[in-house]
Design brief:
The chain is built from seven helices and eleven strands. The protein has 263 residues and is an alpha+beta fold. The chain folds into two domains: 84 residues, T-fold (Orthogonal Bundle); 160 residues, ApbE-like domains (T-fold).
Length: 263
């Protein structure tokens, strides 16, 4: 968190003049994923995150519903006004978080820096958001092994063994609700459905393979919130994007082209 960042300025003041090209890229990309996901990917979800992290989970269901209804009035990327020289909120109380897209963007930018130094083989890992450039030095593909979200304590699991991926010049990112929670009972995860105001629990984990890490990052969150059916429909509609989805019942669903990347 940086209180001097452009996102922080925008959240404090409701507007940002002369945004940097990088910030504008992130906002415009966020609007693209908002649109193609039907509003399930939404960077204006920050007020809901503040609400839940501030202790909403301690309240009764009635109080939760009332406060969520109030907060939903300032949620929605359609309430963002964006131009080349200004980003502005249409409603007071709005705030953005770029957590679901900025890390992937940073990985892509880091990879571009490596390319400027004529580096042709590299693996960048930013907390699970990965980009593999080229092959390994021995000419083989980079391999990525998925962690079974139901097997953190080496206990028996109902989820089928997950595949190991092998690829070159591709990005992979995973969204899951099995690490970060707002409440001690681990019932309120950090991934919110911007349309309902509640954390989403249709999926346990979503892994996306795409050409850029920003796309993989944003789509992993989008599909996670959308759920396995609508989410997979979105993936199948996009070029050069594959997915592995684990739903709340432990069922694993793979996109039609995923087999190409399974070792």
């Amino acid at each position: 968190y940086d209180e001097n960042s452009e996102a922080s300025f925008l959240n404090r003041n409701g507007y940002l003049d002369d945004p940097s090209p990088e910030f504008l890229d992130l906002i415009n990309a966020s609007l693209y994923y908002y649109n193609i996901s039907g509003g399930y990917f939404d960077v204006t979800v920050q007020p809901l995150l503040d609400l839940w992290s501030g202790g909403l989970w301690k309240e009764t269901a009635e109080v939760q519903a009332e406060k969520i209804e109030e907060t939903l009035a300032v949620i929605g990327s359609d309430k963002l006004t964006v131009s080349a020289d200004r980003v502005e909120f249409e409603k007071e109380g709005m705030a953005v978080t770029l957590n679901a897209i900025a890390k992937g963007y940073a990985v892509d930018e880091a990879m571009e820096v490596l390319k400027e130094f004529d580096i042709k083989q590299a693996l960048i890992n930013a907390g699970g958001d990965l980009y593999a450039m080229g092959t390994k030095p021995d000419g083989t593909s980079w391999t990525v092994e998925l962690k079974n979200p139901d097997d953190s304590d080496n206990a028996d699991t109902d989820i089928e063994p997950l595949p190991t991926f092998a690829f070159a010049d591709k990005a992979v990112a995973t969204s899951g609700n099995y690490y970060r929670y707002y409440d001690p009972e681990k019932e309120v995860s950090h991934i919110m459905d911007p349309r309902t105001g509640y954390s989403t629990n249709i999926c346990i984990s979503v892994t996306i393979i795409a050409d850029t890490c920003m796309e993989a990052d944003a789509l992993a969150t989008s599909v996670f919130v959308m759920g396995p059916d609508d989410g997979m429909n979105l993936v199948e509609s996009l070029k050069d994007v594959e997915a592995l989805i684990i739903d709340s019942g432990g069922k694993v669903t793979k996109s039609s082209g995923l087999l190409e990347y399974i070792k």
